[in-house]
């Protein structure tokens, strides 16, 4: 079973000595302490589950700025995997409806744009440096996981607690909304090869075949060296 409700505190890896996934009769067992990212004062510093975001580089330049679009992905990974004790399998949720539109000033309704322009594949970025998973987690501002759209109340744009059952059992979780959504570059290209490829890019990053960066501007590369490359993808419509 991959999905479930938020779980109460379980015995942590530090308490049991477990540093990898534990499978009994075909079922993953709890190996890390549950932590609620929505709790007041939450910090990655005292959590067995690390939470941070990355920006995965795609192939296409749909916002026509001369660079491949970056899409934001929210990462939750057990600390033991981030520290190199084991490689984690990943649950990947791709839902283009969860993050609103980025309202960058360039819209997919612009009649002056030729569809072929959106399929341009400019040269990839050259990283100016790199950041480790542990560094990214220590620097993450969890307030960035809250977004206010217009005059609405602050909301969690992703279903942050949806996969707590699996996180406690050693799985990692990635959630992304794709091109043209809040926190990502590009424009919404629903149902196109550009949108499909962008979501695929996240899987390629998890397999070491594509670059991701800590944010849209700093050009600091971050790898998914904690991933074992096995990805179960889920979506919603």
What is the structure about, briefly put?
The chain is α/β, with parallel strands linked by helices and 237 residues long. The protein has helices at 13-16, 79-82, 133-139, 164-168, 193-206, and strands spanning 22-24, 27-29, 49-57, 70-78, 88-94, 129-130, 172-176, 212-213, 220-221, 227-235. The protein has a 6-stranded mixed beta sheet. It has a two-stranded antiparallel ribbon with strand order 1-2.
Task: Please explain how this structure is put together.
- The protein is of the alpha/beta class and 237 residues long.
- The chain has helices spanning 13-16, 79-82, 133-139, 164-168, 193-206; strands spanning 22-24, 27-29, 49-57, 70-78, 88-94, 129-130, 172-176, 212-213, 220-221, 227-235.
- It has a 6-stranded mixed sheet. The protein has a two-stranded antiparallel ribbon with strand order 1-2. It has a two-stranded parallel ribbon with strand order 6-9.
- The protein is globular, with a radius of gyration of 18 Å.
Count the E strands: 10
Largest sheet: 6 strands, mixed
Average of per-residue pLDDT values: 86
| N-end to C-end Cα span | 21 Å
Number of helices in the DSSP assignment: 5
* H-E string: HEEEEHEEHHEHEEE
Strand coverage percent: 15-25%
Order of strands in the sheet with most strands = 8-3-4-7-5-10
**How would the global form be characterised?**
globular
* SSE-based structural type: alpha/beta
Q: Give the low-pLDDT segments.
A: 1-17
């Amino acid at each position: 079973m991959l999905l479930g409700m938020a779980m109460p505190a379980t015995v942590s890896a530090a308490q049991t000595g477990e540093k990898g996934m534990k499978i009994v009769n075909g079922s993953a067992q709890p190996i890390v302490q549950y932590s609620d990212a929505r709790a007041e004062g939450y910090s990655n510093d005292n959590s067995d589950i690390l939470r941070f975001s990355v920006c995965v580089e795609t192939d296409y330049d749909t916002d026509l700025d001369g660079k491949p679009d970056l899409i934001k992905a929210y990462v939750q990974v057990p600390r033991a995997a981030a520290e190199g004790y084991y490689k984690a399998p990943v649950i990947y949720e791709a839902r283009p409806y969860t993050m609103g539109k980025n309202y960058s000033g360039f819209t997919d309704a612009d009649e002056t744009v030729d569809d072929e322009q959106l399929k341009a594949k400019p040269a990839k970025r050259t990283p100016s440096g790199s950041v480790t998973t542990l560094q990214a987690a220590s620097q993450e501002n969890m307030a960035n996981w809250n977004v206010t759209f217009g005059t609405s109340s602050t909301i969690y744009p992703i279903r942050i607690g949806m996969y707590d059952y699996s996180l406690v059992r050693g799985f990692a979780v990635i959630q992304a909304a794709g091109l043209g959504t809040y926190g990502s570059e590009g424009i919404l290209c629903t149902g196109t090869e550009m949108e499909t490829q962008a979501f695929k890019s996240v899987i390629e990053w998890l397999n070491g075949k594509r670059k991701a960066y800590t944010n849209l501007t700093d050009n600091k590369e971050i790898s998914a060296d904690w991933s074992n490359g096995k990805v179960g993808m889920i979506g919603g419509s």
